[in-house]
Specification:
The protein is α/β, with parallel strands linked by helices. 34% of the residues lie in helices and 26% in strands.
């Protein structure tokens, strides 16, 4: 049984249809990347899937339970770490995780043991008795993740878990997400970072203005819009002659200037030696060469006509609450 099934899901706010007929399926044990710019509908979708917001159309099941009819069963099966982590700054990290364990019905000794294990796991054992208000942004995200894992959820929802974090903290979160998934946890990850989706996700759904515009594995989505191309910067020789020679190996793309040849190649890096050898034998000197692979941003542009807008990772800017 799939971990998540979404069929025609919609959510309207007054006259604004923030989520418009979303369809997706997430298999047990995979990381699903939900990629899109601020305001695309990512957070609204997560709030519906985690029973925090009622849909105005369509249906969804999580861990086999309907998010409307079986909301309590859904909540018992999931862990949730949202953008706006509700962490009491006056509590210590240890107190907060133990409280979460108690709210999950664990007896005192078990709650203490579980909290200690999770704090160790997210590398907060040394800071466990400090007040949360003294934690950095990355530490607070890791603490929120620990709290979401208290009851060993089958499905973990992470909404923009690395927004506003420095590169080191982002890498730490990525490593923990991958480790959790390796242990069998299904992860639904919303992000606006191309690299995050590309590196972590088994499958990706790209959302824009409330609609899914593409879905599949990162590699299949990139392959659908074209093969890699080689960008050759000429030092000596005629660009016309170079293009004629390159046409024997791959498909020419429109040049970006008078000294650069772009050629789409079927075999990627394997075609580079042949290209260089062919030009060298003709006396055409190459000053630089780069293999350029399609990116998820290229997919986004192909599907929407505009680039995926990303905020500065240091800014901490977040998606509007109702979109």
């Amino acid at each position: 049984m799939p971990a998540i099934v979404v069929e025609g899901l919609e959510r309207a706010f007054d006259d604004v249809l923030a989520v418009q007929g979303v369809n997706l399926e997430v298999d047990e044990g995979e990381i699903y990347g939900f990629l899109g710019p601020n305001g695309a509908g990512k957070t609204t979708t997560v709030r519906m899937l985690t029973t925090l917001l009622l849909p105005t159309g369509g249906r969804a099941t999580v861990a086999g339970h309907d998010v409307v009819r079986d909301a309590r069963a859904v909540r018992a099966s999931i862990g949730v770490a949202l953008q706006e982590a509700a962490l009491d700054p006056l509590m210590t990290g240890r107190e907060l995780v133990r409280l979460q364990a108690t709210l999950q019905g664990m007896p005192g000794a078990e709650a203490k043991r579980r909290a200690n294990d999770l704090l160790e796991r997210v590398d907060l054992a040394d800071a466990a008795d400090r007040r949360v208000g003294t934690y950095s942004g990355g530490m607070q995200r890791r603490l929120d993740l620990a709290a979401a894992l208290v009851h060993a959820p089958r499905v973990l929802f992470l909404d923009e878990p690395t927004t506003g974090l420095d590169p080191v903290s982002r890498k730490t979160i990525w490593e923990e997400v991958r480790a959790l998934n390796d242990e069998g946890t299904t992860v639904f990850l919303t992000t606006q970072y191309l690299e995050e989706a590309d590196r972590l996700a088994d499958n990706v759904g790209i959302i824009d203005r409330g609609r899914i515009v593409a879905k599949g594995t990162p590699e299949s989505l990139k392959a659908d819009i074209g093969r890699p191309h080689v960008q050759l910067q000429l030092a000596e020789g005629s660009i016309d002659e170079a293009e004629e020679l390159c046409k024997q190996i791959g498909r020419l793309l429109p040049p970006i200037d008078a000294r650069t040849v772009l050629v789409e190649v079927e075999n990627g890096a394997a075609d580079i030696p042949r290209l260089v050898r062919t030009l060298d034998e003709a006396g055409i000197e190459v000053s630089s060469l780069e293999l350029v692979k399609p990116t998820l941003d290229d997919v986004f542009v192909a599907k929407t006509g505009h680039h995926l807008e990303q905020e500065d990772p240091e800014s901490g800017e977040q998606e509007p609450a109702e979109v």
